[in-house]
Hints:
The chain has helices spanning 21-31, 59-64, 78-88, 100-105, 110-116, 141-147, 168-191, 201-209, 211-219, 253-262, 266-270, 277-282, 284-295, 300-309, 320-325, 327-332, 375-381, 386-394, and strands at 12-15, 35-40, 50-51, 54-55, 68-72, 93-96, 121-126, 195-200, 236-240, 245-249, 314-316, 335-340, 344-349. By secondary structure, the protein is an alpha/beta fold. It has two domains: 3-208 and 331-394, 3-Layer(aba) Sandwich (Rossmann fold); 236-240 and 245-316, formyl-coa transferase, domain 3 (2-Layer Sandwich), CATH 3.30.1540.10. Helix 7 (168-191) packs across helix 8 (201-209).
Amino acid sequence: MTNNNLPLSKYKVLDLTIARAGPTAARVMADWGADVIQVSPPDRPGQKGGNITGHRDGFDFQNLQRNKRSITIDLKNPEGYELFVNLASKVDVIIENYRADVKHRLKIDYETIKKINPNIIYGSISGFGQDGPYKDRPGLDQIAQGMGGLMSITGVPETGPVRVGIPINDLCAGMFLAQGLLLALLNRENTGEGQWVHTSLLESAIFMLDFQASKWLQKGEIPIQAGNNHPTGIPQGCYMTSDKSINISAVGDKLFSRFCKSVEAQYLLDDSHYKDDESRLKNRDMLNDEISKIIIKHKAEYWIEKLNKVGVPCGPVNNIAQVFEDPQVQYLSMTHKVKHKRLGDLSVVRQPINLSNADQPENFRYPAPELGEHLEEVLKEFGYSNKDIDKLKTNNAIA
Protein backbone atom coordinates (compact mmCIF):
# COMPACT_ATOMS: atom_id res chain seq x y z
CA MET A 1 0.00 0.00 0.00
CA THR A 2 1.29 3.47 -0.89
CA ASN A 3 1.30 6.38 1.53
CA ASN A 4 -1.37 8.11 -0.57
CA ASN A 5 -3.75 5.23 0.07
CA LEU A 6 -3.44 5.27 3.85
CA PRO A 7 -6.74 5.95 5.67
CA LEU A 8 -5.94 9.56 6.65
CA SER A 9 -4.06 10.63 3.51
CA LYS A 10 -6.71 13.18 2.45
CA TYR A 11 -6.38 15.23 5.64
CA LYS A 12 -4.08 18.18 6.35
CA VAL A 13 -3.06 18.84 9.95
CA LEU A 14 -1.35 21.83 11.56
CA ASP A 15 0.65 20.59 14.54
CA LEU A 16 1.29 23.29 17.16
CA THR A 17 2.27 20.83 19.86
CA ILE A 18 5.29 20.61 22.13
CA ALA A 19 6.59 18.10 24.70
CA ARG A 20 5.05 14.60 24.33
CA ALA A 21 1.28 14.32 24.70
CA GLY A 22 0.37 16.56 21.78
CA PRO A 23 3.07 15.19 19.44
CA THR A 24 1.81 11.67 20.25
CA ALA A 25 -1.63 12.58 18.89
CA ALA A 26 -0.07 14.17 15.80
CA ARG A 27 2.11 11.07 15.29
CA VAL A 28 -0.96 8.84 15.09
CA MET A 29 -2.40 11.08 12.38
CA ALA A 30 0.92 11.25 10.52
CA ASP A 31 1.63 7.52 10.64
CA TRP A 32 -1.76 6.77 9.10
CA GLY A 33 -1.16 9.11 6.20
CA ALA A 34 -2.26 12.61 7.23
CA ASP A 35 -0.10 15.49 6.00
CA VAL A 36 1.06 16.76 9.39
CA ILE A 37 2.78 20.14 9.28
CA GLN A 38 4.59 21.23 12.43
CA VAL A 39 4.33 24.94 13.12
CA SER A 40 7.13 26.17 15.37
CA PRO A 41 8.36 29.66 16.28
CA PRO A 42 11.68 30.55 14.63
CA ASP A 43 13.21 31.69 17.89
CA ARG A 44 11.97 29.21 20.48
CA PRO A 45 14.86 28.81 22.91
CA GLY A 46 16.56 25.46 22.46
CA GLN A 47 14.26 24.35 19.67
CA LYS A 48 17.08 23.91 17.16
CA GLY A 49 18.54 21.40 19.53
CA GLY A 50 15.23 19.76 20.43
CA ASN A 51 12.88 20.17 23.37
CA ILE A 52 11.75 18.34 26.50
CA THR A 53 11.93 15.05 24.59
CA GLY A 54 15.62 15.49 23.92
CA HIS A 55 18.01 16.69 21.24
CA ARG A 56 16.57 16.81 17.73
CA ASP A 57 18.99 14.09 16.64
CA GLY A 58 18.25 11.98 19.71
CA PHE A 59 16.39 8.68 19.88
CA ASP A 60 13.30 10.10 21.60
CA PHE A 61 12.80 13.05 19.26
CA GLN A 62 13.31 10.92 16.16
CA ASN A 63 10.75 8.34 17.31
CA LEU A 64 8.15 10.92 18.36
CA GLN A 65 8.34 13.36 15.46
CA ARG A 66 8.68 11.08 12.41
CA ASN A 67 6.38 11.41 9.40
CA LYS A 68 5.92 15.17 9.92
CA ARG A 69 7.04 18.25 8.00
CA SER A 70 8.27 21.42 9.70
CA ILE A 71 7.69 25.12 9.08
CA THR A 72 8.49 28.12 11.27
CA ILE A 73 6.11 31.04 11.86
CA ASP A 74 6.35 33.86 14.38
CA LEU A 75 2.75 34.04 15.56
CA LYS A 76 3.48 37.29 17.43
CA ASN A 77 4.44 38.96 14.15
CA PRO A 78 1.33 40.42 12.41
CA GLU A 79 2.33 39.00 9.03
CA GLY A 80 3.22 35.70 10.64
CA TYR A 81 -0.16 35.55 12.32
CA GLU A 82 -1.88 36.41 9.02
CA LEU A 83 0.06 33.58 7.38
CA PHE A 84 -1.02 31.14 10.07
CA VAL A 85 -4.67 32.18 9.76
CA ASN A 86 -4.50 31.59 6.01
CA LEU A 87 -3.07 28.11 6.51
CA ALA A 88 -5.64 27.38 9.23
CA SER A 89 -8.45 28.28 6.84
CA LYS A 90 -7.36 25.51 4.46
CA VAL A 91 -6.61 22.53 6.73
CA ASP A 92 -8.78 19.88 8.35
CA VAL A 93 -7.26 19.60 11.80
CA ILE A 94 -5.29 21.74 14.25
CA ILE A 95 -3.63 20.13 17.28
CA GLU A 96 -2.23 22.11 20.23
CA ASN A 97 -1.28 21.52 23.84
CA TYR A 98 -0.71 25.02 25.15
CA ARG A 99 -2.03 26.12 28.49
CA ALA A 100 -5.50 27.63 28.11
CA ASP A 101 -4.37 31.24 28.52
CA VAL A 102 -1.55 30.97 25.96
CA LYS A 103 -3.67 30.06 22.94
CA HIS A 104 -6.13 32.85 23.73
CA ARG A 105 -3.30 35.34 24.06
CA LEU A 106 -1.94 34.25 20.67
CA LYS A 107 -5.48 34.32 19.19
CA ILE A 108 -5.22 30.77 17.90
CA ASP A 109 -7.95 29.32 20.13
CA TYR A 110 -10.86 27.31 18.76
CA GLU A 111 -13.45 30.10 18.78
CA THR A 112 -11.10 32.37 16.83
CA ILE A 113 -10.15 29.73 14.26
CA LYS A 114 -13.76 28.58 13.89
CA LYS A 115 -14.69 32.01 12.54
CA ILE A 116 -12.32 31.62 9.60
CA ASN A 117 -12.77 27.84 9.17
CA PRO A 118 -16.13 26.57 10.46
CA ASN A 119 -15.23 23.02 9.42
CA ILE A 120 -12.05 22.85 11.47
CA ILE A 121 -11.48 19.96 13.85
CA TYR A 122 -9.51 21.55 16.67
CA GLY A 123 -7.75 19.26 19.14
CA SER A 124 -6.37 20.29 22.52
CA ILE A 125 -4.51 18.59 25.35
CA SER A 126 -3.94 20.31 28.68
CA GLY A 127 -2.70 19.22 32.06
CA PHE A 128 -5.96 19.40 33.95
CA GLY A 129 -8.73 20.52 31.60
CA GLN A 130 -9.71 23.59 29.60
CA ASP A 131 -11.73 25.03 32.49
CA GLY A 132 -11.84 24.71 36.25
CA PRO A 133 -9.65 25.80 39.15
CA TYR A 134 -6.49 24.19 37.75
CA LYS A 135 -6.90 25.19 34.09
CA ASP A 136 -3.90 27.53 34.11
CA ARG A 137 -1.53 25.21 35.96
CA PRO A 138 1.37 23.69 34.04
CA GLY A 139 0.81 19.97 33.63
CA LEU A 140 3.40 17.20 33.35
CA ASP A 141 3.02 13.43 33.23
CA GLN A 142 4.41 12.70 36.69
CA ILE A 143 2.27 15.41 38.28
CA ALA A 144 -0.80 13.82 36.69
CA GLN A 145 0.33 10.35 37.79
CA GLY A 146 0.31 11.59 41.35
CA MET A 147 -2.90 13.61 41.18
CA GLY A 148 -4.72 10.91 39.23
CA GLY A 149 -4.01 8.22 41.83
CA LEU A 150 -1.78 6.05 39.68
CA MET A 151 1.31 6.38 41.85
CA SER A 152 -0.67 5.37 44.94
CA ILE A 153 -1.32 1.90 43.49
CA THR A 154 2.08 1.36 41.84
CA GLY A 155 4.93 -0.32 43.70
CA VAL A 156 4.90 -2.01 47.09
CA PRO A 157 3.75 -0.51 50.40
CA GLU A 158 7.30 -0.50 51.79
CA THR A 159 8.55 1.85 49.07
CA GLY A 160 5.85 4.49 49.08
CA PRO A 161 4.38 5.89 45.84
CA VAL A 162 6.13 4.90 42.59
CA ARG A 163 5.79 6.42 39.12
CA VAL A 164 5.08 4.16 36.16
CA GLY A 165 8.21 3.56 34.08
CA ILE A 166 6.81 5.31 30.99
CA PRO A 167 5.07 8.71 30.60
CA ILE A 168 1.77 6.88 30.57
CA ASN A 169 -0.51 9.90 30.91
CA ASP A 170 1.24 11.80 28.11
CA LEU A 171 0.94 8.78 25.83
CA CYS A 172 -2.64 7.95 26.75
CA ALA A 173 -3.79 11.56 26.45
CA GLY A 174 -2.20 11.71 23.01
CA MET A 175 -3.87 8.52 21.88
CA PHE A 176 -7.22 9.57 23.35
CA LEU A 177 -7.01 12.90 21.54
CA ALA A 178 -6.19 11.12 18.27
CA GLN A 179 -9.23 8.91 18.83
CA GLY A 180 -11.33 12.00 19.48
CA LEU A 181 -10.05 13.68 16.32
CA LEU A 182 -11.02 10.63 14.26
CA LEU A 183 -14.48 10.61 15.86
CA ALA A 184 -14.87 14.30 15.01
CA LEU A 185 -13.77 13.71 11.42
CA LEU A 186 -16.32 10.91 11.10
CA ASN A 187 -18.98 13.14 12.60
CA ARG A 188 -18.09 15.88 10.11
CA GLU A 189 -18.73 13.44 7.29
CA ASN A 190 -22.34 13.22 8.54
CA THR A 191 -22.97 16.80 9.68
CA GLY A 192 -20.54 18.92 7.70
CA GLU A 193 -19.57 20.64 10.95
CA GLY A 194 -16.27 20.92 12.75
CA GLN A 195 -15.83 20.92 16.51
CA TRP A 196 -13.42 21.25 19.41
CA VAL A 197 -11.99 18.00 20.79
CA HIS A 198 -10.08 18.17 24.05
CA THR A 199 -8.74 15.97 26.82
CA SER A 200 -6.17 16.29 29.58
CA LEU A 201 -3.46 14.36 31.36
CA LEU A 202 -5.62 14.23 34.48
CA GLU A 203 -8.69 12.89 32.67
CA SER A 204 -6.56 10.26 30.97
CA ALA A 205 -4.99 9.22 34.27
CA ILE A 206 -8.38 8.75 35.90
CA PHE A 207 -9.78 6.80 32.96
CA MET A 208 -6.77 4.48 33.06
CA LEU A 209 -7.49 3.63 36.71
CA ASP A 210 -10.25 1.41 35.27
CA PHE A 211 -11.28 -1.28 37.82
CA GLN A 212 -9.30 0.42 40.57
CA ALA A 213 -11.54 3.48 40.17
CA SER A 214 -14.63 1.26 40.11
CA LYS A 215 -13.52 -0.35 43.35
CA TRP A 216 -13.74 3.04 45.04
CA LEU A 217 -16.82 4.30 43.22
CA GLN A 218 -18.92 1.18 43.74
CA LYS A 219 -17.53 -0.38 46.92
CA GLY A 220 -16.03 2.60 48.72
CA GLU A 221 -12.68 0.85 49.07
CA ILE A 222 -9.41 2.71 48.46
CA PRO A 223 -7.06 0.44 46.46
CA ILE A 224 -3.52 0.06 47.78
CA GLN A 225 -0.17 -0.94 46.33
CA ALA A 226 0.06 -4.63 45.57
CA GLY A 227 3.53 -4.84 44.06
CA ASN A 228 3.72 -7.58 41.42
CA ASN A 229 0.59 -9.27 42.72
CA HIS A 230 -2.68 -8.74 40.93
CA PRO A 231 -4.95 -6.69 43.22
CA THR A 232 -7.81 -9.21 43.11
CA GLY A 233 -6.62 -12.40 41.40
CA ILE A 234 -4.40 -15.07 42.97
CA PRO A 235 -2.12 -16.68 42.05
CA GLN A 236 -1.03 -14.04 39.57
CA GLY A 237 2.30 -12.38 39.86
CA CYS A 238 6.04 -12.51 39.43
CA TYR A 239 8.00 -15.55 40.65
CA MET A 240 11.74 -16.25 40.69
CA THR A 241 12.95 -19.36 38.86
CA SER A 242 16.44 -20.77 39.22
CA ASP A 243 17.75 -18.25 36.66
CA LYS A 244 15.33 -15.31 36.31
CA SER A 245 11.83 -14.04 37.04
CA ILE A 246 8.66 -15.09 35.23
CA ASN A 247 5.02 -14.06 35.38
CA ILE A 248 2.34 -16.66 36.05
CA SER A 249 -1.44 -16.27 36.03
CA ALA A 250 -3.51 -19.16 37.39
CA VAL A 251 -6.57 -17.29 38.59
CA GLY A 252 -9.85 -19.18 38.97
CA ASP A 253 -10.53 -22.78 39.95
CA LYS A 254 -9.94 -24.21 36.48
CA LEU A 255 -6.54 -22.58 35.90
CA PHE A 256 -5.44 -23.14 39.49
CA SER A 257 -6.17 -26.84 39.13
CA ARG A 258 -4.21 -27.03 35.87
CA PHE A 259 -1.32 -25.19 37.47
CA CYS A 260 -1.14 -27.43 40.54
CA LYS A 261 -1.28 -30.60 38.48
CA SER A 262 1.35 -29.32 36.03
CA VAL A 263 3.82 -28.40 38.80
CA GLU A 264 3.02 -31.63 40.68
CA ALA A 265 1.53 -29.84 43.68
CA GLN A 266 -1.68 -31.76 44.31
CA TYR A 267 -1.30 -30.91 47.99
CA LEU A 268 -2.22 -27.30 47.20
CA LEU A 269 -5.53 -28.45 45.73
CA ASP A 270 -6.21 -30.54 48.81
CA ASP A 271 -5.50 -27.68 51.22
CA SER A 272 -8.67 -25.92 52.41
CA HIS A 273 -6.78 -22.63 52.61
CA TYR A 274 -6.81 -22.55 48.81
CA LYS A 275 -10.16 -24.16 48.03
CA ASP A 276 -11.60 -21.20 46.08
CA ASP A 277 -10.78 -17.68 44.85
CA GLU A 278 -11.84 -16.04 48.09
CA SER A 279 -9.73 -18.38 50.19
CA ARG A 280 -6.71 -18.01 47.95
CA LEU A 281 -6.97 -14.22 48.10
CA LYS A 282 -7.29 -14.30 51.89
CA ASN A 283 -4.18 -16.49 52.13
CA ARG A 284 -2.28 -14.85 49.29
CA ASP A 285 1.10 -14.54 51.04
CA MET A 286 1.08 -18.14 52.25
CA LEU A 287 0.15 -19.45 48.79
CA ASN A 288 2.79 -17.29 47.09
CA ASP A 289 5.41 -18.71 49.45
CA GLU A 290 4.42 -22.26 48.49
CA ILE A 291 4.47 -21.46 44.77
CA SER A 292 7.85 -19.73 45.09
CA LYS A 293 9.36 -22.87 46.64
CA ILE A 294 8.23 -24.85 43.59
CA ILE A 295 9.14 -22.38 40.84
CA ILE A 296 12.69 -21.80 42.11
CA LYS A 297 13.56 -25.42 41.34
CA HIS A 298 13.76 -25.02 37.54
CA LYS A 299 14.78 -22.46 34.95
CA ALA A 300 12.39 -19.95 33.43
CA GLU A 301 12.35 -21.64 30.03
CA TYR A 302 11.24 -24.93 31.63
CA TRP A 303 8.24 -23.35 33.35
CA ILE A 304 7.24 -21.15 30.41
CA GLU A 305 7.03 -24.16 28.12
CA LYS A 306 5.44 -26.48 30.67
CA LEU A 307 2.73 -24.11 31.89
CA ASN A 308 1.75 -22.69 28.52
CA LYS A 309 1.42 -26.24 27.21
CA VAL A 310 -1.43 -26.88 29.66
CA GLY A 311 -3.02 -23.47 29.07
CA VAL A 312 -1.71 -21.62 32.11
CA PRO A 313 -0.48 -18.16 31.02
CA CYS A 314 3.20 -17.76 31.76
CA GLY A 315 5.91 -15.55 30.31
CA PRO A 316 9.34 -14.05 30.94
CA VAL A 317 10.13 -10.68 32.49
CA ASN A 318 12.16 -9.21 29.64
CA ASN A 319 14.43 -6.22 29.58
CA ILE A 320 14.01 -3.95 26.56
CA ALA A 321 16.74 -5.70 24.54
CA GLN A 322 15.09 -9.05 25.17
CA VAL A 323 11.74 -7.65 24.04
CA PHE A 324 13.05 -6.90 20.57
CA GLU A 325 14.96 -10.20 20.41
CA ASP A 326 11.78 -12.17 21.14
CA PRO A 327 10.69 -14.28 18.13
CA GLN A 328 7.04 -13.21 18.43
CA VAL A 329 7.99 -9.54 18.54
CA GLN A 330 10.20 -10.02 15.50
CA TYR A 331 7.36 -11.80 13.70
CA LEU A 332 5.06 -8.86 14.48
CA SER A 333 7.60 -6.46 12.92
CA MET A 334 7.11 -3.87 15.62
CA THR A 335 9.88 -1.67 14.24
CA HIS A 336 9.98 0.18 10.94
CA LYS A 337 12.80 2.06 9.25
CA VAL A 338 13.05 5.75 8.49
CA LYS A 339 15.89 7.21 6.41
CA HIS A 340 17.53 10.32 7.83
CA LYS A 341 19.83 12.32 5.54
CA ARG A 342 22.43 12.79 8.28
CA LEU A 343 21.79 9.96 10.74
CA GLY A 344 21.23 7.17 8.20
CA ASP A 345 18.63 4.41 8.62
CA LEU A 346 16.87 4.60 11.99
CA SER A 347 14.57 2.05 13.60
CA VAL A 348 11.46 3.37 15.34
CA VAL A 349 8.43 1.68 16.87
CA ARG A 350 5.42 1.38 14.56
CA GLN A 351 1.79 1.94 15.45
CA PRO A 352 0.34 -1.19 17.14
CA ILE A 353 -2.87 -1.26 15.06
CA ASN A 354 -3.13 -3.69 12.14
CA LEU A 355 -5.58 -3.15 9.28
CA SER A 356 -5.99 -5.97 6.77
CA ASN A 357 -6.65 -3.58 3.88
CA ALA A 358 -4.36 -0.74 4.91
CA ASP A 359 -0.98 -2.07 5.97
CA GLN A 360 1.44 0.50 7.33
CA PRO A 361 4.37 1.04 4.93
CA GLU A 362 7.54 -0.74 6.03
CA ASN A 363 9.40 2.57 5.79
CA PHE A 364 8.09 5.85 7.17
CA ARG A 365 7.78 8.83 4.82
CA TYR A 366 9.83 11.35 6.75
CA PRO A 367 12.32 11.31 9.61
CA ALA A 368 11.83 13.86 12.38
CA PRO A 369 12.28 17.15 10.52
CA GLU A 370 14.88 19.82 10.99
CA LEU A 371 13.40 23.04 12.34
CA GLY A 372 11.68 24.76 9.39
CA GLU A 373 13.01 22.19 6.93
CA HIS A 374 9.90 22.21 4.73
CA LEU A 375 8.99 25.89 4.98
CA GLU A 376 9.25 26.89 1.33
CA GLU A 377 7.89 23.54 0.12
CA VAL A 378 4.77 23.83 2.27
CA LEU A 379 4.09 27.51 1.60
CA LYS A 380 4.29 26.95 -2.16
CA GLU A 381 1.73 24.15 -1.80
CA PHE A 382 -0.57 26.71 -0.14
CA GLY A 383 -0.14 29.14 -3.05
CA TYR A 384 2.71 31.38 -1.87
CA SER A 385 5.23 32.54 -4.48
CA ASN A 386 8.97 32.97 -4.04
CA LYS A 387 8.37 36.72 -3.83
CA ASP A 388 5.76 36.21 -1.08
CA ILE A 389 8.12 33.97 0.87
CA ASP A 390 11.03 36.39 0.57
CA LYS A 391 8.84 39.22 1.88
CA LEU A 392 7.75 37.14 4.85
CA LYS A 393 11.37 36.38 5.63
CA THR A 394 12.41 40.03 5.27
CA ASN A 395 9.68 41.03 7.73
CA ASN A 396 10.73 38.28 10.18
CA ALA A 397 7.34 36.55 9.96
CA ILE A 398 9.11 33.29 9.06
CA ALA A 399 12.68 32.07 9.13
